[in-house]
Amino acid sequence: MKLATRAMMVAAAFHVVCGAASGVTLDVETELDLSFVSSHIWRGLEINDEPCFQPSLTMASSNFSFSAWGTWDITDVPDSSSHSRVDLTLEGSAGSGIHLLCAGLAAYIYHDAPSSSKDDTFEVYVRYVADVLLLPSLEVRYDFSSFDGYYASASLAHSFSLKKRTDEVAGVDLDFKIAVSACDEAYANGYYGLPANESAGLSEFKPHKAILSDFTASVWLPMSLSENISVTPMARFVSVIDSDVRDAWSERGMDTDHWLWGASVAFSF
After folding, report:
1. pLDDT tens digits, residue range 5-43?
2. Pairing between strand 229-240 and 257-268?
3. Helix, strand, coil % (nearest 5) of the chain?
4. 127-156 residue pLDDT tens
5. How many whole angstroms separate alpha carbon 92 and alpha carbon 166?
6. CA torsion sign, 108 to 15 to 95 to 222?
7. According to the model, what pLDDT value does residue 78 have?
8. Residue 167 scores a pLDDT above 80
9. CATH no. for residue 192?
10. What range defines the domain where residue 262 resides?
């Protein structure tokens, strides 16, 4: 199966890269996160409007990480298997003072069946984070498999400690993050464009320019139940920014603003 093959290839690459750091002992930390969300929105587009199960597994050392994330429809709807996806990410990082630079490879693997209409896609990316107030970051991704285009995001984030954890009381934080994303013309045409709809009298839509694509605001309330277990409710608002995309999507009855909710249980070891 292509999913198993590519998963093994990425995992093998992770071990090869780590092993190349001769003389360096890696202390690997692992986290398993089990999340349930009200819908699946990706880069402003509603992939699935039904509740989803989204588990993830991350293995990280001081300079390298490998993660696997998946999304599955948990309701009985037609063609639900086409909504499934597994993301595999291999990332390396280096820091100096307040500066952190990360680079990685991401594989987005869709339903592993011959009848699937979606092709797997692959991206490389770089991300810069400044360890100052609001943690400003900038990430640029290049899709070299499907769209041959760039997608970039700038974000701000912060965490407030509401209650420190003790032996009797769970610790509670309040985290938030806002992000604005943009893409070049090639990515905008491939991801935000729409085919013609002759029955509705609508012609093909393609943004013939780089666009501000989407805005995301997220709030989490992580509660540390112990050193290794946490529970996190979440709320998120996602909105398409570009007015031409909004108009074209609205003509076809597609939503351009989304609220979603969720909760997760995380285990670290």
Report:
1. 444 454 444 444 444 443 445 689 999 999 999 999 999
2. antiparallel
3. 15, 55, 30
4. 999 999 999 999 999 999 999 999 999 999
5. 34
6. positive
7. 59
8. no
9. 2.40.160.40
10. 2-268
pTM over 0.85: yes
Residue 41's closest CA among 28, 55, 51?
A: 51
Which of 189, 47, 208 is CA-nearest to residue 118? 47
CA pair distance 125, 102, nearest whole angstrom? 8
**Residue 66 to residue 59: CA distance in whole angstroms:** 5
Structure tokens given for 40:
């699946």
- Beta bridge partner(s), residue 127: 102, 139
As for how many domains the chain has, the answer is: 1
Q: Give backbone dihedrals phi and psi of 245, rounded to 5 degrees, phi first.
A: -65, -45
Name residues whose C-beta falls within 8 Å of residue 226's C-beta, 6 or more positions apart in sequence. none
CA-only gyration radius of the chain, Å: 20
pLDDT band for position 168 (cuts 50, 70, 90)? low
Calpha distance 123→108 (Å, rounded): 8
